[in-house]
Amino acid sequence: MKKLYKTFIAATGITLMVASTGFTAAAAGFSDVIPRYADSIDFLVSKGAKGMGDSSFGIREEIKRIDAAILTAKVLRLHTETAPASGFKDVPKRGQSAVNALKAAGITSGKTKTLFDSNSPITRGEIAVWIQKGFDLRGETATIFKDVPKNYLSAVQALVANGVAKGMSAENFGINANITRGDFAIFLHKSANDGVVTANILSIQSVNSTTLKMKIKGSVTDLNATDFLFDNGLEVKEAKVTDSTLTELTVELKTSIQQEGTKYTLKTFKGLDVTGVVSFTIPAGNGNGSATGPAVIRSVNFSGTTENPKVFYGDVRVDVTGVNNLENAEVKGDLYLKGNTEVTLSHVTVEGDTILEE
Questions:
Q1: pLDDT (tens digit, 9 = 90+) per residue, 196-246?
Q2: Residue 337's beta-bridge partner residues?
Q3: 18, 211 contact by CB (below 8 A)
Q4: Which of 23, 72, 99, 247 is the least crowded, having the fewest Cβ atoms under 10 Å away?
Q5: For domain 199-290, which CATH number applies: 2.60.40.1220, 2.40.128.600, 2.40.110.10, 1.10.1130.10?
Q6: What are the DSSP calls for 214-259, one per residue?
């Protein structure tokens, strides 16, 4: 089975269960909530969602784009207070910071440069794109919906592959149908909590024999030394955030002495499996211990598409034995190619050096 990944979102919560009904405490207060929606609505209520004012949650009602934006930004824990102005002229004050953050993170671009269309309902296709981008969902499925155009295909495929969404029928996803408040709750809840959740490590660099610099995708709070578990006896003694943007943060770790000639691998972060650049090696004879471990990427996972090129942070090593072409990717570091010195790079941008290895 193909392993699927989601960007790590730090989240904690307590759910109170009413054993006799299967409803959570919050969901039980709404007259229209049936069991399959209960956990998801309880989750959304914990993020600030409210009912319709008539004792119902409105599980079959549409949700406005502005309300979807506010809740999506909260679940993603975006830096809403520091995001630059979106430029949209129709966003009410209550949702401006959320929309600013969503645009800055590349999750939405609005309807036009100046129109977000705040009060219109959001479609299933539009929310699929938001969720795929926000949670960095990846994956493919054999399920083909007749109503999904090319510009929505990767988003819908990712949601279905990760078990976040199903079609409205066997043949149609309902790409242009307005999403209901109930289904929106399920989509967002499953994206945040289900599947294989991982921490995406963008880079690890040894600054000196007792200091590491690490970039992590996403927004994380309450960072502690005990959140980082390395192998080979490397102990993290202190951890602090030195820089933070809307989509990533830079962390400095104080460690026990990193031994020359030893490869260290980050096994877990906050108890979660990790993906990306997870290892580094201190070369023998390198006095200051400076090193960055290239991420090993399978050739089948390297190439993107013209519409959605792949982006890799840090150094990358690809075994291209038997591979003739890599395409549509950006490497923010050095690119190591092993096994075929004749491989062709099409629309591949490398910020560092391209190194051919026999």
A1: 345 678 888 888 778 898 888 766 656 788 889 998 889 999 999 888 776
A2: 318, 356
A3: no
A4: 247
A5: 2.60.40.1220
A6: EEEES---S--GGGEEESTT--EEEEEEEEE-SSEEEEEEEESPPP
